[in-house]
Each structure stands twice: as C-alpha cells, then as structure tokens.
Sequence to fold (303 residues):
Amino acid sequence: MVNRIILSIFMKGDIDGYTFYAHNLGRFDSVFILKSLVTNKYFSLIPIWKDNSLIKLTIVYNKKKINLLDSYRLIPNNLENILESFKCSIKKGKFPYNFVNKNNLNYVGDKPLKEFFDNTSYSDYSLIKKPNWNLKKEVLNYLKSDLSGLFEALLKFNENIFNQYNLNITKFKTLLGLALAVYRSNYLPNHLTKELKMIKGELEREIRSAYFGGNVGVYINKINKGYLYDVNSQYSKAMLNDMPIGNPILSLETNLEKIFGFVYGEITCPDENILQIPFIQHRGYFGKTKPCPRGKFKRLIFS
Fold:
C-alpha cells in the first residue's frame, strides 16, 4: 500500500522537487515508509538522520525526486494544539484507537463506549453520532481531517514566516534551522555577515564531532548536611566566550599555545593516582558518547 501511494504521487505530473510533510515523521511514519520502500528496487532513498530520528527523506524515482519532512520538527506540538493555536477551521477528530482490532474492521453499529476514546471529554463524546457508526468511514474521515488540518496549519505558518521574514519554511528541516535563518537574514549586523561562515560538508562534520553536551557525573551520592543550589544559564554564559570565526584555516601547527580552534590529536588521560576524575569525553562507534575514558584515544577537541 505504501509503495502504491508513493508511486501514485510520482504519477501525478510534474512534482519533481515537491516537499511533503508528515507530523512526527521521524518517530512514527518513517518506520512504515522505510520498511516498505527499502526493498523496492525502483526507488532510491536518501535519508538524513539526527539523534536516531529521520528528519528528511528524499525519494528518487525515474530521475524525479520528492522530499518528506517532519512538520513536528518545525512546530513541536501535538496536532490538536497546533490546529487550535493557528485557529484552523478544521479541528482534530476524535477516534477510538483502542476499539479497533482485526475482527471488527467492518463494524457498523452504535458508537464505541467512551472508554475507547482516549483524552476525550464527556461533552465531546456526546457530540459523536450514535446510530450506524461506521468504522471504515470514521477512519477515512479521521485521516482526512488530520491531513487537511495539518495542511491548513502549515500554510498559515509559512505565510506568517514569509510575510515577516521573506523565508520559505520548506527550505528548513528544523525550527532551529529556521530560527538561525531568520536571525541571519533579518537581525545580524551587516559587519558580521562576512565573519560568520556557514560551514558545510566534510569540514562541518569534523567540527561537529568535537561538540558534546554537558559533562555531568555524580561521585558523592550522599550528603548528610547541605544545601541544594540550581545553577542555570550555563550555556548562555559559555556563549559569551570567544569562538573561532571567519574563514577556516587548516594548519599543521602542533604548539597548542599558538592555536585557537579545533585540534586533532592523541590524548592521554593520566592514571587515577594523578587525576582522580577524568573529564574529556569521547565518542565511540555510531557516534555514541562514552564515559570519559582513561588511557590513550584520538579525537578532535577545542583548543
């Protein structure tokens, strides 16, 4: 079925380069789509992953391509809240997910009991028609309202962004990418536009390998008498420190005193009698962060 759906899209005419959205593509729809298309020799798939989640899938067929993006990455909320916040004419439907099973797919009769409708108030439940409740028709109506509602919300979102910032949301995979583009095109001072470079390709991947999240470890798990303090805004404070800007320069310099940037080298972590708590993180296979290791290891690190 998934193969037929994708093929029917390519048969619709000149759709080369079109962008399609699925809400929560990376964590839900992509499972069915990839499983179905990966064995089809007529389709070529180009996925982009982030944190084990699919954020973009390009499907190529007969020299034409379409792009699938995750609307949840642009508007991170559930569809019901999105439709309400954008004041869409279409509302999120109510459906008894727990009612459906392989033995009642052709069910026609009284509406299912309220216990089958998750997160549905009694007032909303009372509005659902009672006699001749048709499961097949309700499924199709529910899916149609989801698609139409998401389409309306994305149109409104794109119109807002384009009118205010002259940007098209289909050019950006995530809300963070869109926010960066809004800043660069509308708020970045002119004298900085030449200094801040958008690094892409292999160099970007190398530099990103040196980026890690917060390094947090608990070494004393019991305090008999003490106070608890919450220290926040550490990321924003760190962003005030100097960072390399301008055109990247590749160098064979080995004196760290002369380097301000990212350095690749072999790191030796001392024994425990010299350094009780190691603090330099390392990534293993598949990019997974390991605990701070001892001994020797190689990685890219900020000087």
Observations:
- The first strand starts at residue 19 and ends at 22.
- Residues 2-74 form one domain.
